[in-house]
Each structure stands twice: as C-alpha cells, then as structure tokens.
Design brief:
The structure holds 2 protein chains of 2 kinds.
Chain A (H helix, E strand, L loop, with lengths): L1 H19 L5 E7 L6 H20 L3 E3 L2 E3 L1 E7 L4 H14 L4 E3 L4 H13 L4 E3 L20 E3 L4 H15 L4 E7 L3 H16 L3 E8 L7 H10 L3 E4 L6 H10 L5 E4 L7 H6 L7 E4 L8 H14 L5 H20 L4 H9 L4 E3 L2 E5 L5 E2 L2 E7 L2 E8 L2
Helix pairs in contact in A: 2-11, 3-4, 5-6, 11-12
Chain B lengths: L1 H31 L6 H18 L4 H24 L7 H22 L4 E2 L8 E4 L2 E4 H23 L1 H11 L11 H26 L2 E2 L3 H16 L4 H21 L5 H15 L14
Antiparallel strand pairs in B: 1-4, 2-3
The chains are: A alpha/beta, B mainly alpha.
C-alpha cells in the first residue's frame, strides 16, 4: 500500500519539475503592508508594481542576452508587522526563489526583512523605508551589501525639516509628539531634535505615545503648557488627523510639521479641516513633475483613477532601478544583479534622478509640501 | 492649577471609556467565570455600527446610541449562544481560547469589509468652551455624561430589579440557581446582551471622541479595560468602574508629570502593586470555598 502511494507521487514530482523548465521569467518579490495599520501604503505599492510590470511585459520583457524575459510578480502581505515581514521575506527568497525583493515600506518591517535579505544574499530594495538602520548593519556600523532603498534617509529628512522650520517658517521653538514604538517616527523625532538644536532652535517638549493609542490629550495638554511655535509630528497618516484635531480642540494654535510618513492622500480624507495649512517633507511633488513623472502620473491615473502618492512613485522607481540592474547584469543571478545595482550612477526616475555611492542609500533631493484646501501644494525644494 | 484641572478632565474622559468597557468583562465573568476576550472587538463593532447607521439614516444621537447598543448587544448574545454555550461545561481554558478566536474572527471580518481606517462623521456640532486656560468641549461633557448615566442605569438594574437579583444569584452559585426555577440560559443571554451593548456604546462614544476608526481599534483599548476590570475586582460591577477611572487617571497623570515614554511602565507597575496587596482586585471578593 505504501509503495503504491509513493508510486503515485513520483510522476507528480516530475510534473512539478517540468513546470520550472518552461518559458523563463524573472520573479520579483513584493513584500508590502496590504493589511494592518497602514493598508493605504500596501495598496499604492501593489498598484505601482503591477503597473510597472504590465508595461514592461507589454514591451516584451527585460532584454537579457538575445532574448526578452518577462517579469513575474510574487506578492506577500506583511500586515505591517515586523515578524510577518521577516517571514514573508524568507518565503519569497527561499521558497519562491525571487531574483530580488521590493519592500517592505514601513521601517519597522523593512529592518527585520533586510536582515533576512542580507543573510540569504538576495538584493532587496525598500521603496519608502527612510530609517538609517535599514541599510546599515547596526552591530558593525557598515552598510549592508544587498539592501538598497529608493528614498532619502531620515538623517537627510531631519536636516531638511529642521532648516525649513528655522529658515523658512522663522520659528525657533518646537515640540515633538511621536510613536515611540515605531521605528521610523522614533528615529525621525530624535534626528530632528539633534539638528534643530544644533542649528539654534529650542525643543520645548518631546512627548511620546505607543502604537494603537487614540487619545493624546494628556501629552497635548503638556505641549500646550510649553507653548511651542511649531509641533513636529513624524507620525503615520492614521494618527496625524486625531492628534491635530485634539490639539485644536485644546486651543493649541501652533503650526504642524510632518515627515514623509504623512504622504498619502488618506491623511486629507481622515483629517477634516484642522489639518489645513500644515507642512511636510516628501519625496516628490506632482506639481513639479519631470517628463518621466508626467508619463507615470498619466498612466497611473488611467489605470487606477487616482493620483499616485509618493509610495507608488517610489515603488515604480524601485522596479525601474531593478530592471536597469538586471539588464546591466545580463543574467538572472542575484550576485550579478546586486553588483549592477550598486553601480547605478544616474537613473532618471519619477522621484528625480538618483545614484548609489558605495552604500544602499541613493543621493537624491526632497521637497516640502503644504496641505491646502484638500491638496498637497509644493512649497520648496531641498537638495542634498 | 489650570494645567492640573485640564489633565483631570482628560483623565475623567479616558476613565469613563475604560470603565464602560470594563463593565462588559466584569459582568460576563460574574455569571460565567470566563473572560470574554472578544469584548474589545464588540467595542470596535459598536463604532462601525454607528458609522453605518449614521451614514444612511440621519437620526438623532440618542436613537443611534440605542440602535448601536441593540446591534452589538445582539451580536454579543449570539456569540454566547453559538460559541460559548456549547463549551459551558468544558474546561475554562477552552472557553477563553474560543473567545480569543471569536474576537479574531470578528476583527478580520471587519478588516476584510473595511481594510482602510474610516473617518467618523460628528453626530452633533461640537462647541468648545475656553475658561481661562481650561478647554472643555460639549463632546467631552457628553461622553462623560452618557457613560455615567449608563453606569448608574446598570447599577440600578442589578441592585433593584428581579433580573439583577437573578444575575447576582447565578454569580453566587450557578449550580443551585436553575433548581430554584430561574431560567439560567435566558439570564446569561441577557447579561451578554447588556455587557456587549455597553461595550458597543463605548465604541460609539470613542469613535466620536477619536474620529478615525479601524478594525484594530478594539485590541489595545480592550486589553486596557480588561486590566481595569481585574484591578477593580473582576466580577464586581462597581469595581470595574473604579478600575476604569483609576487606570485613566494613572495614565494621564503619569504623562502630565513624568516623561510620556514612562506612561505604560508606571501605570502598569502601579496596578501590579495594587494586585499584590489586593489579589482579588480592589472590590473583588475571594471565591467561596466549598468543602
């Protein structure tokens, strides 16, 4: 009986192996936040990835040698949780055998996933994770070899924002309120404080909360007593509207300034009128778009009926540099693709031009936007 | 002084919500000696039910409140009938795990219907009053007022009506009570109905106060309210209310006078200390030892 059953399995294995030798395709993993605390982030990333791949495959695929190889997307949902991001990374790399992984987007997920990618020697590009630890090995302080990102870092962003508050808004006292349990906000708040104080500003209050909190009245009452001119909120888009609303109800009149964690239109939908007039740092603006960006926006609108946010733009660029690297490598080999990625010296993407200089962090610029009457309005540019 | 008064108002608002949710845990524990871990998710359903009703029918606040309480109440009673009753004589651990499972199912059903956080429309115009440095809004007063009214109503129901007496009797001795002709199942169903209804009301008030609602909103608040119920003495109705207000006050006052990062550390350490000295909670009684 046992032998009979086994005999049944053998041809099945043969069949499965047969599948692999069919038409070759380049599998790319997408490890994103489809459910959990920030589903808007995952949805944008998935949309942009599918748009890129359909365009690339409509053109025949990536030219490698004398043949064109189509791209194949393998999507994994990390539910915006650190542990799940790591297990999705493991599955994509070890089981689905992807050539490279794009994502995760939230730093809290990207950092653990980057450890897996580094250990398994698989190239990873995070479109949106700005925390320095994503591309740097904390124990040695050296850059990770296989981990790249398509966005600027928090160190750069904090410097841009601190200077914007001091020089453009001409405000010298600030307070911060952020989620102490979340990687990107935590890093941004501390880096902002450092650069703001080093450039002559004064932090009058520095308050925290934890993920899932909805009541900020105690912290805001404290901030109100410290009377800052500006409140820095490096918080994800679903917390910001609540904080701003509660602050206004308590009679706080200070300006609000945020980081790229604000950068989805959901923040306007959830925010109501109170968020009007606030500023934040972003990766690109639809108002100063280059030709490449114009084309992307038109295509995205045509396919999904909405404006792409910066997560969509950065995801699109991540796939852009990845295909560029695969082309340059000339073969579907992780090591060759990694080496080609590190050598990208001028890629003209949706979010501007960028290059890599020895680390996984690109050299690129940022913009400051203001929320005005339900729209993101461009205010200033900031170069590295 | 203004600062302290403002923080005191914040604490009362926070405490009212915790107390209202803690009641549901305590009531169910009182009659069944089980922890209904799906309660935090019933709270979340209350907020979504309010959003659903309010976006289709522009009814007055009080009518929506009653509808929301009925909807979540019946969901709670249904949960008891389908999931908990078959396990009533099973080990307690099975019932508790079932409750956790039910909570996850509810949460994920809502998540699949509404993966995005949703803005909650205000049900009435909020007016803010600024007296000196103090800010109070009609919304805060309404939350505190409705919570206290519901808690007083429950207290009356339990202490002054025959249903309340039956509930207290079951809590005292669930084996003997049916022998005296009291419909055990019906009393338990109604207990779930009321407990879940109060949780739903808390969800609705919470949604008004913090108008971004999501499927995951009940998890953290649910756990905190559970802690409040335990500190107050689980099974004791007045204890749940006391525990809710203590937790709200400790949380807010820690933030008010210490770095806010220490909030949960200080708040929960203090609650642990209370439990060391009062292992059954502040108003809880040690279980009867039957020899």
């Amino acid at each position: 009986m046992k032998i009979l059953r086994f005999a049944g399995i053998v041809p099945l294995i043969g069949l499965l192996a047969g599948c692999g030798s069919g038409a070759p395709s380049a599998k790319v993993g997408l490890n994103v936040e489809l459910t959990g605390e920030m589903p808007a982030v995952g949805a944008s990333a998935k949309n942009a990835a599918e748009l890129f791949i359909s365009q690339q495959n409509a053109a025949g695929g990536i030219p490698i040698g004398d043949q064109k190889i189509p791209l194949e997307l393998v999507v994994g949902d990390n539910a915006a949780k650190a542990d799940q991001a790591a297990s999705v990374a493991n599955k994509l790399i070890a089981q689905d055998n992807v050539i490279a992984m794009v994502g995760p987007d939230a730093s809290a997920c990207a950092i653990p996933a980057s450890e897996i990618a580094e250990a398994l020697k698989c190239p990873m590009i995070s479109p949106w994770s700005t925390n320095p630890k994503t591309t740097v090995d904390v124990t040695t302080g050296k850059p990770k070899e296989y981990v790249f990102r398509a966005c600027f870092t928090d160190t750069f962003q904090a410097r841009v924002l601190a200077k914007f508050v001091l020089n453009n808004l001409k405000k010298t006292s600030a307070a911060a309120l952020y989620d102490v349990a979340s990687e990107a906000p935590n890093g941004q708040a501390n880096l902002f404080r450092e650069t703001f104080e080093a450039n002559g500003g004064k932090m009058v209050a520095f308050e925290t909360y934890t993920t899932g909190d909805r009541d900020f009245s105690a912290q805001l009452t404290k901030i109100k007593a410290a009377n800052p001119e500006v409140i820095f909120l490096p918080c994800y888009y679903n917390d910001v509207p609540l904080i701003v609303q509660q602050a206004r109800r308590l009679g706080i009149t200070a300006d609000f300034v945020g980081s790229d964690t604000w950068s989805t239109p959901e923040i306007i939908k959830l925010g109501g009128g109170e968020i009007n007039g606030s500023y934040f740092c972003n990766h690109y603006s639809t108002q100063i778009a280059t030709d490449v960006a114009q084309k992307f926006m038109t295509d995205y609108r045509a396919k999904y009926g909405q404006d792409p946010d910066d997560i969509a733009a950065l995801t699109y660029d991540s796939f852009g540099i990845l295909t560029e690297a695969i082309k340059a490598a000339g073969k579907l080999d992780r090591q060759a693709v990694r080496d080609a990625l590190a050598k990208i010296s001028a890629y003209n993407g949706v979010t501007g031009s960028f290059k890599f200089e020895g680390t996984g962090d690109p050299v690129k610029s940022a913009v400051i936007l203001q929320i005005k009457d339900g729209k993101f309005v461009w205010v200033a540019n900031a170069t590295p | 002084m203004d600062y302290f008064a403002q923080q005191a108002i914040n604490a009362i608002q926070q405490g009212s919500i915790y107390a209202l949710i803690a009641l549901g845990y305590s009531m169910v524990y009182g009659v069944l000696t089980m922890i209904n871990f799906a309660h935090g998710d019933l709270f979340m359903v209350g907020a979504f039910a309010c959003l659903l009703i309010a976006s289709f029918f522009p009814l007055p606040f009080i009518v929506i409140l009653i509808l929301v309480m009925l909807a979540t109440g019946f969901l709670g009673a249904l949960l008891e009938r389908l999931a908990y009753r078959p396990l009533r004589n099973a080990p307690r651990v099975s019932a508790i795990i079932t409750a956790l499972g039910c909570g996850l199912v509810i949460e994920n059903v809502v998540l699949s219907l509404s993966p995005y956080a949703k803005p909650m429309p205000p049900l009435f115009t909020v007016t803010g009053y600024h007296i000196g440095g103090l800010s109070v809004s009609t919304l805060q007063l309404m939350i505190i007022g409705v919570s206290i009214a519901l808690m007083l109503g429950l207290d009356f129901l339990i202490r002054r009506t025959s249903f309340g007496m039956a509930m207290r009797a079951i809590s005292f001795d669930a084996k003997t009570v049916p022998l005296l002709g009291i419909p055990l199942n019906r009393i338990i169903s109604v207990t779930f109905l009321i407990g879940a209804g109060l949780g739903g009301a808390a969800g609705m008030l919470y949604g008004q106060a913090y108008p971004v609602i999501a499927a995951s909103m009940g998890i953290l608040v649910g756990w905190k309210a559970f802690v409040a119920a335990v500190v107050g003495g689980i099974g004791s109705i007045r204890g749940a209310v006391l525990g809710g207000y203590i937790l709200g006050t400790v949380e807010v006052m820690t933030v008010a006078f210490l770095p806010s990062t220490y909030r949960d550390l200080v708040a929960y350490s203090l609650l642990l200390v209370i439990l060391i000295f009062k292992p059954y909670g502040l108003l809880g009684k040690a279980p009867n030892q039957k020899v």
